[in-house]
């Protein structure tokens, strides 16, 4: 019997640490991808809600869209919600579509 053996060796400790590091390197990117997809989904849903709410506001007030009216409505409506991932405020095209500007190419990127 090995009655005098106490604790773990340095090699065993090193092996456990290497295994933990490998698992961490695999898990962190997967979790970050899941978080990014969730944030994208939340922003898209908030933009859809903004479009629906703004359309109802125009109908109830019986007014036509204007940039000033949309900006005022958006500032009152927005309470820290993520609408555009790039942090900018959305805008309304002439056809009534609410868009966000994509920072990568500075072109309007339709969300709806």
Can I get a quick summary?
This is Prepilin-type N-terminal cleavage/methylation domain-containing protein. The chain has about 110 residues and is mainly alpha-helical. It has helices at about 10-60, 65-75, and strands at about 90, 100, 110.
Structural class: mainly alpha
- Range of strand content: 5-15%
Total domain count: 1
Average pLDDT figure: 80
The count of DSSP E runs of length 2 or more, i.e. the number of strands, is: 3
Could you give the order of strands across the largest sheet? 1-2-3
Q: In sequence order, what are the helices and strands, one letter per element?
A: HHEEE
What is the helix fraction of residues, given as a range? 55-70%
Number of continuous helical runs: 2
**Largest sheet entry:** 3 strands, antiparallel
Low-confidence stretches are 103-112
Silhouette = rod-shaped
Taking all Cα atoms into account, the compactness measure Rg is 26 Å
Termini gap: 72 Å
Helix and strand arrangement:
Elements: H1 10-61, H2 67-77, E1 91-92, E2 98-101, E3 108-110
Antiparallel strand pairs: 1-2, 2-3
Keywords: Competence, Membrane, Transmembrane, Transmembrane helix
Protein name: Prepilin-type N-terminal cleavage/methylation domain-containing protein
Transmembrane segments: 12-35
